[in-house]
């Protein structure tokens, strides 16, 4: 029984590596850059073809059901060893930058564009307004969080589950809520 479990796990890892290599080749084919050792689970969806604005680092993990809605001309970068877990949605109309060693938990949404909400017309046909999003290195976005246009997370930031972020969160902060507010600072090794 243990042998069968190990064999199944090995096959799953091999499939993730193969899908990751195919994904990386696809990004490179269309002019983007993609590192080595990318792992991709099943049902990864691209809403638009990759392009020159894409940059995916080494060892990036793309979980099951991740949706990448990166519009032509937008910039999308993910740093080395970052993880986009299951069913994360990324929507870039202008620019989304995710640093190295970040973890974006399942069911999170990162979108740099909003619809206009003027009462004069239909919301669905209102023009999109975009502001870049930046996530610093070594940050963790909790399950179900929403990062919306103009969000800037410093390095080492933790965002609580189901939080809504549309502001700047300083380095090594822990922020929670809707809207997200800093509740404390992370303790660094060697600090009092």
How far apart are the termini? 49 Å
Number of helical segments with 4 or more residues = 1
Tell me what portion of residues adopts beta-strand conformation. 25-35%
> In CATH terms, what is the architecture?
3 Solenoid
- Assign the CATH topology: UDP N-Acetylglucosamine Acyltransferase, domain 1
Instruction: Give the biggest beta sheet.
Output: 8 strands, mixed
Counting helices, strands and paired strands, the structural category is: alpha/beta
Give the neighbour order of strands across the main sheet: 2-5-8-11-16-19-22-23
| Beta strands, count | 23
Q: What does this 3D model show about the protein?
A:
The protein has one helix and 23 strands. With 192 residues, it is α/β, with parallel strands linked by helices. The protein has a single domain (2-185), classed as Hexapeptide repeat proteins (UDP N-Acetylglucosamine Acyltransferase, domain 1), CATH 2.160.10. The strands form four sheets. An eight-stranded mixed sheet has the order 2-5-8-11-16-19-22-23.
Question: Characteristics of this structure?
Answer:
UDP N-Acetylglucosamine Acyltransferase, domain 1, 33% strand, single chain, 192 residues, 1 helix, alpha/beta
């Amino acid at each position: 029984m243990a042998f069968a479990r190990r064999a199944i796990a090995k096959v799953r890892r091999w499939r993730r590596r193969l899908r990751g290599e195919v994904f990386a080749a696809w990004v490179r084919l269309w002019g983007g850059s993609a590192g080595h050792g990318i792992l991709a689970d099943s049902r990864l969806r691209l809403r638009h073809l990759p392009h020159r604005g894409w940059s995916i680092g080494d060892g990036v993990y793309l979980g099951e059901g991740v949706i990448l809605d990166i519009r032509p001309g937008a910039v999308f970068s993910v740093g080395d060893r970052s993880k986009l877990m299951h069913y994360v949605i990324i929507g870039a109309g202008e620019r989304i930058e995710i640093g190295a060693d970040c973890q974006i938990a399942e069911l999170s949404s990162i979108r740099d564009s909003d619809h206009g909400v003027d009462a004069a017309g239909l919301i669905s046909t209102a023009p999109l307004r975009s502001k870049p999003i930046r996530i610093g290195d070594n940050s963790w976005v909790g399950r179900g969080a929403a990062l919306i246009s103009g969000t800037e997370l410093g390095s080492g930031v933790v965002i609580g589950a189901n939080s809504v972020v549309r502001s700047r969160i300083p380095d090594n902060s822990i922020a929670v809520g809707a809207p997200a507010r800093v509740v404390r600072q992370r303790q660094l090794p060697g600090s009092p």
